[in-house]
Design goal:
The protein is of the alpha/beta class and 315 residues long. It has helices spanning 6-18, 21-28, 32-46, 62-86, 102-107, 109-119, 132-140, 185-190, 201-212, 226-234, 244-252, 283-314; strands at residues 51-54, 57-60, 96-101, 125-130, 146-150, 157-164, 167-171, 182-183, 193-196, 219-223, 240-243, 257-258, 260-261, 270-276. The protein has three domains: 6-86, Arc Repressor Mutant, subunit A; 96-163 and 270-304, D-Maltodextrin-Binding Protein, domain 2; 167-268, D-Maltodextrin-Binding Protein, domain 2 (3-Layer(aba) Sandwich), CATH 3.40.190. The protein contains twelve helices and 14 strands. Strand 9, helix 9 (201-212) and strand 10 (219-223) form a beta-alpha-beta unit. Helix 2 packs across helix 3 (32-46), helix 6 (109-119) packs across helix 12 (283-314) and helix 11 (244-252) crosses helix 12 (283-314). The protein is globular and about 70 Å long.
């Protein structure tokens, strides 16, 4: 009986996550034959087939579905082991490198950094921004120790989901569509819509909402950033699907109102923190993580109060 190896477990999770050997090979930056060899060796060590091919593509077998939660736990345990050993060594110098999505840099990080630097005034922090994919690449490439983005999963990183950050449909409370707080998607498609950051995951998710329903959105404006889109809505130029993290305060103050779509699922997103499984976090990074957790809890409570207040005003 052969032994299981960490890289085999990691490869198994990559294939399961990306639904195929080719995409898993691209994600792990190894050849497809290497992926096949690792999966074959893992199956031999377990005496079971982990994947099955069907008309719909590659799926997990019963053995594969049983293995998956244990595989995820094994990688988490390996990461904790590296962390424990790392803590025995003297702390390394250098600034704390953080990569973050632009919306998180603008609407979330300033308060987090304010609290963090009060407690750790001697820690230097470098922040780089980009799309979620770019954040992932910076973390995996060693350019950042921690990444903050929305809805990120990859077998080479540990993902800590900090909470929900859905896209909310927001409108000016006193402009067209007047006093509408509930609407069907077909109605919304005819309103003047403001889209932001063409090609981003938020842009794609919003367009897909209409496309899946066979509708063509009435795109009145396309702008570069969330903040620009928000300002346009505040001036009554249209409505927009914007991250809750960006509009919570405006909703609470009555500057923006939310519209609930009656016949479509909410556009769900999560606020995620990622770090490499193969590199232990320094004490500074762990302290930063603790501050982030605290800030997310506060923001979630604030957002909940904001949305409840908005619903009360709309009755």
């Amino acid at each position: 009986m052969q032994t299981m190896e960490i890289d085999q477990i990691e490869t198994f999770l990559a294939v399961a996550t990306f639904d195929g050997f080719h995409r898993a090979a691209e994600a792990l930056r190894i050849s497809q034959p290497a992926v096949s060899a690792r999966i074959k060796a893992l199956e031999q060590s377990l005496g079971a087939t982990l994947f099955a091919r069907s008309r719909g593509g590659l799926t997990l077998s019963d053995a594969g579905r049983t293995l998956r939660p244990y595989a995820e736990q094994l990688l988490r345990t390996a990461s904790l082991a590296r962390q424990a050993v790392h803590e025995l060594r003297p702390g390394s110098e250098g600034p704390l490198q953080i990569a973050a999505a632009l919306s998180i840099c603008v609407y979330f990080l300033p308060d987090v950094l304010k609290h963090f630097q009060r407690a750790h005034p001697n820690v230097i922090i470098n922040i780089r921004s980009g799309h979620s994919k770019e954040v992932l690449e910076m973390v995996m490439g060693g350019e950042a120790e921690i990444g903050l983005a929305r809805s990120l999963q990859h077998p080479e990183v540990e993902t800590l989901s900090l909470g929900d950050d859905p896209l909310l449909l927001v409108a000016h409370p006193k402009q067209e569509p007047k006093n509408v707080r509930r609407a069907r998607l077909e109605e919304v498609a005819n309103w003047p819509l403001i889209f932001f950051d063409r090609g981003s995951s938020d842009w794609t998710l919003t367009h897909s909402l209409f496309r899946r329903a066979g509708l063509v959105a009435n795109v009145a404006l396309e702008v570069d950033t969330i903040e620009t889109a928000k300002r346009m809505v505040e001036r009554g130029l249209g409505v927009a699907f914007l991250p809750r993290i960006a509009v919570g305060r405006e909703i609470q103050r009555g500057k923006l109102a939310t519209v609930r779509i009656l016949d479509a699922e909410p556009l769900r997103r999560s606020l995620d923190l990622i770090h490499p499984r193969h590199r232990a976090l320094r004490a500074e990074a762990r302290a930063f993580l603790a501050v982030v957790r605290e800030a997310v809890n506060e923001a979630s409570a604030f957002a909940g109060n904001s949305l409840r207040g908005s619903r009360r005003r709309s009755k």
